[in-house]
Amino acid sequence: MNYRRVALAIGTLSLGLSLLAIVFPGLVAVTLEQVVISVVGGVVLLQALRVMLVRRREDRDEAVPPDPERPISTSPPGEELEDELERFLGDRRLYFPRVRLREGLRAAAVTVLSQYGPHSTAEAEEAVDAGTWTDDVYAAAFLGDERAPTPPLRVRVGNALRRESPLERHVRHVVDAIAAAAGVAAPSNEGASKRSGQQADRRAESSNRTARNRSTGRANDVRNTTDPETNDTLRRATHSTGHWTGVSVVALVSIGVGILVEQPSILLAGTVGIGYAAYARSSALAPRSVSLSRTLSTERPEPGEEVEVTVTITNDSEQALADLRLVDGVPASLAVTDSSPRIGTALRAGESRSYTYAVTARRGVHTFGPATLIARDLAAAAEQERELYTETTLTCIPPLRAIPEPIPLRAQATREVGHIETATSGDGVEFYATREYRPGDPMSRIDWNRRARTGELTTVEFRNERSASVVIVVDTREEAYVSPDPDAEHALDRAVDAAGQLFVTLADSGDRVGIASLGDNACWLAPGTGVDHRDTARELLATHPAFSPVPRETRSVVVQHRNRLRKRLSAGTQVIVLTPLCDEFGGQFARRLEEHGYPVTVISLDPTASQTTAQRFARVARRLRVSNLRSNGIPVIDWDWDDSITATLARFNERWSR
């Protein structure tokens, strides 16, 4: 609405009426009092029109409380197919999306055929071009040249009636054909799309929940003024919610009409609405008028233990607070398992109200965030948003449990007594060979049974053993926070638990064991032995920020930490790398250590899923990374998601003992 034009029109009309009154006094029989009343009434009605137009353009300005009931979930590898294709495209610059998609899939097909089939690279390229690499005509036609077969006309007409686009159909067939060539089984069609949709909905819900959990209200109105004494933060000052904006329009219309028709009763009705409009701009909450306290049933629970959280809110002011809505700052890594961390209440002056909810403890240090308080007046016309801070920390340190299976270490060159068997004689407990007696041999080494039988003096030798110096490296990058299901624990959690089991098992065998992280937050524990060393390792795995149950919001250069970690390794140190191998970085790190002479063993938990096309392709890409490491002489223990680390090592040891 152009207010200048309206004002110009009103001014022009007024000027015209004035001229008529001057030229023809009898024509316009209007007194000055009537003119003033009419002008005032018109102005009030114009203001009502302006408020109504503004109200139509704006929504209610009410704060949105956070949603902390469930922890932040993770997603499986393969969110975007284009990201997975980057590995196969290399440095090739292809600007058209369809061309990039086709060339990336073609390179993947050639790689899989040459890796898992009897084809060389040239033969694989020829098979893909000719369309003979698969029985799927859609896959063959999409990647092949003019020699490739095409789907029958009847099938193409039937597919044209489906909701799936031709490009999506071809890509799905190509990925399934590549997966079949790599030995990755495709899921059954029944229920696959349903599960895929459910997972997509859960991921979207998780994303929305995360966004709501980290910000409330409108970002352009956030003040974030912190009280230096209480650390409480005023996120938004007292503002109108817009709940009673329509009352202003009704009030102004009533006043304007009452003035024009000179009816006091109508004018009086408008003043009631003006009272509501003024009430909407009153103060809802004075500074430091509400305080918060929080207590835990235990601050150091065991993993899986239910912890009760009791929150108390107190009205420290001298006036009643009609509408208080409080949401506690539950750590993003903890799930609420009983009751709710939110409450709505009204408090008289000096009154307190407490409520209790429960969370399930998990590994790590979990610091509660500030509670969000939304205070409104009785009419919900004005509100204020605050963050109430009180320091509360829950620390969960799991015990270290040994694995009842030997850890498959590789040969190394130290000469200390310990775990690794060698092909030379020396100190030990396992029989190695006998030799002729030499002066100075210990009496305990003489084979007295043979002396009694044959009269010969011989000395028994035992197999020499060496202790291993081992560093367990856990991939803690953001790429390790993945899982096949959004509601399952992520790969990093399971890797940290496995690292603790590997540590205590190797330590029980007499090896010197250390711990390190491969990520943007460096953690390093040099190889050592002893009770204090075990306690330090247990504390690090549970509390160090590198092993946080939730991804870090800030990131640094991982390559610098990787190079620093390599320089810390002493000669002959064995390295066990725990990584999901969902990208190239973990495999490159293992190969780099192997090239520098450090024996590396990779234990890789498989977090991939197969419900969507991109997820199946991500599973194929991971399997190729495993094969590439093995072809470079690096042992890879492929850990299935549904198996424990104990069962995985038992199966690996059984296979290698044959």
From TrEMBL:
Transmembrane segments: 35-53, 244-261
Polar residues bias (residue ranges): 207-219
Compositional bias ranges of the Basic and acidic residues kind: 60-70
Pfam families, per database record: DUF58 (PF01882), DUF7269 (PF23933)
DUF58 domain segment(s): 434-604
Alphabetical keyword list: Membrane, Transmembrane, Transmembrane helix
Coiled coil: none
Signal sequence residues: none
Sequence segments annotated as region (Disordered): 60-81, 185-239
InterPro entries: DUF58, DUF7269
Alphabetical list of PANTHER family matching this protein: BLL2464 PROTEIN
Descriptive protein name: DUF58 domain-containing protein
Taxonomic lineage from the root: Archaea, Methanobacteriati, Methanobacteriota, Stenosarchaea group, Halobacteria
